[in-house]
Design a protein that fits this description.
- The complex is a heterodimer of chains A (184) and B (259).
- By secondary structure, chain A is mainly α.
- Chain A has 7 helices and no strands.
- In chain A, helix 5 runs antiparallel to helix 6 and helix 5 runs parallel beside helix 7.
- Chain A is elongated and about 65 Å long.
- Chain B has 259 residues and is mostly helical.
- Helices cover 83% and strands 0% of the residues of chain B.
- Chain B contains 9 helices and no strands.
- Classes of the chains: A mainly alpha (184), B mainly alpha (259).
- The interface between A and B is large, with 68 and 61 residues.
Chain lengths: 184, 259
């Protein structure tokens, strides 16, 4: 029994090794694009389009459709709205990942890091991924209200605004170092 | 000598590969960058040749040869431990913050797994062969876990590892995992399956040497200058903000789920 357990663990380790052994160089286009972005834009690219998305998904539109459109048209429109919401949530994930990556890059280039902050970010990243996939599943089977999406977007928007000032100072002093690390 | 022809072939192949590895290590100048790993490569060659002579002198299944072979194995294992430490230091040391965090975690991991190996080996202390195999299995798992933790840390913090170092780590880790697997499966049938056990042992090590030789086949890349670090206040100021917002974002996403 013990031998089987050890063998199982060893097989899992072998799979993890195969996964970690492959170098995952980023596409050159991605590196160039990211390196050319102003540093504050690394925070939130997708949530900036939220006003347009809110307009497209507005409750008034839904009301109008309910009153005037045929059931077939309403179903098709709902399907399209859900698809837009899915893409929007995927975009928010990109924003989250970009922000998370920035946090890691700052940690990598810092002379000293806090164990508490690093473990907290690791845990948040794992939790976000679990919740994100659950949300994606939810969007496939049900619907998510626009106010909820707005609330989510506001959080990211606030983040961009609040950290913009700090990021400017970072940009002034060390953006070239950060970018060289992104490109590494 | 009572080695079968296949074992003999694997043995000769292993010595030739180890010799080739030593040539490549010195030809490519790896000994200037990774002196401990280079010493390990020489030690392994020396151990293989001396065990070969021990078998010739005392016989393959004799007790003195067995003790000599396992003493050499212990010595090379120690060398491997130092080589792993050197690799961790070489790869992570330029990133002072990450290194400060990682070395404690790696030491803790290795101490825990070594203690676990010793506890399990203690259960087999009544007979020397199971004791040695259990201890070796636990220590191989420890090395594999430390190397995987190193690779995972590099992946998480997006630390670019020089290809030759990466493949050395992969070879070491692969060998350790296969040795642990080999000891797990074949230890109960060692008396009848010693041929397979030895064959797998030699083959996995030969594969690791081939991986290292391939890594050293091309000239080493010029050493990168150490990264210029940011000021500490950047981390202290930005990281709590970033983490706070990530936390709020998680909460909002959960709210969407609850709706």
């Amino acid at each position: 029994m013990h031998a089987i357990l050890i063998a199982g663990i060893a097989l899992v380790l072998l799979l993890v090794l195969i996964w970690l052994a492959r170098e995952t160089p980023r596409a050159p286009a991605e590196i160039v694009t990211e390196a050319q972005l102003p540093i504050e834009e690394l925070f939130s690219l997708h949530c900036r389009h939220f006003p347009q998305i809110r307009q497209a998904l507005s409750g008034a539109d839904e009301q109008y459709l309910r009153e005037r459109a045929s059931p077939a048209l309403r179903r098709r429109t709902l399907r399209e709205r859900r698809s837009v919401a899915r893409r929007f949530v995927a975009g928010l994930r990109e924003d989250f990942v970009r922000l998370e990556r920035l946090g890691r890059t700052i940690a990598t280039l810092s002379p000293r890091v806090s164990r508490r902050q690093e473990f907290a970010r690791l845990e948040l990243g794992m939790r976000f991924r679990v919740v994100y996939w659950a949300a994606v599943l939810r969007l496939f089977v049900g619907s998510v209200s626009i106010p909820q999406l707005a609330s989510l977007t506001d959080v990211i928007g606030n983040l961009a605004a609040e950290t913009e000032r700090a990021m400017r100072s970072l940009e002034e002093t060390s953006v070239s170092r950060l970018r060289s690390n992104f490109s590494a | 000598m009572h080695l079968s022809s296949t074992e003999l072939l694997l043995w000769v192949l292993s010595i030739l590969l180890q010799f080739g590895l030593c040539v490549l290590v010195f030809w490519r100048g790896l000994h200037r960058r990774l002196p401990i790993f280079s010493s390990y490569a020489v030690l392994v060659l020396f151990a293989a040749i001396s065990v070969w002579f021990a078998y010739r002198r005392w016989g393959y299944r004799s007790l003195p040869a067995w003790y000599f072979a396992w003493s050499m194995q212990g010595l090379t294992f120690l060398g491997r431990g130092f080589a792993v430490t050197e690799l961790c230091w070489k790869i992570l040391r330029p990133y002072a913050g990450v290194w400060g965090l990682a070395w404690r975690a790696l030491v803790l991991l290795s101490v825990m797994l070594t203690a676990r190996a010793m506890v399990y080996a203690q259960g087999d202390a009544h007979w020397v062969v199971p004791f040695v195999l259990t201890a070796e299995q636990g220590l191989e798992m420890m090395i594999a876990a430390v190397l995987l933790a190193l690779l995972a840390t590099c992946a998480y913090y997006r630390i670019s590892v020089e290809p030759s170092y990466r493949w050395i780590v992969v070879g070491l880790c692969f060998n350790s995992i296969i040795q642990a697997l080999n000891n797990s499966f074949l230890r109960n049938w060692l008396s009848t399956q010693i041929f397979f056990w030895n064959g797998i042992r030699l083959s996995s090590f030969n594969i690791a040497i081939v991986v290292w030789c391939v890594a050293l086949w091309k000239p080493l890349l010029a050493e990168r200058p150490a990264p210029v670090l940011l000021g500490q206040q950047m981390y202290d100021e930005l990281t709590p903000q970033v983490n706070y917002r990530l936390r709020v974002l998680n909460q909002r996403l959960l709210e969407i789920l609850r709706f």
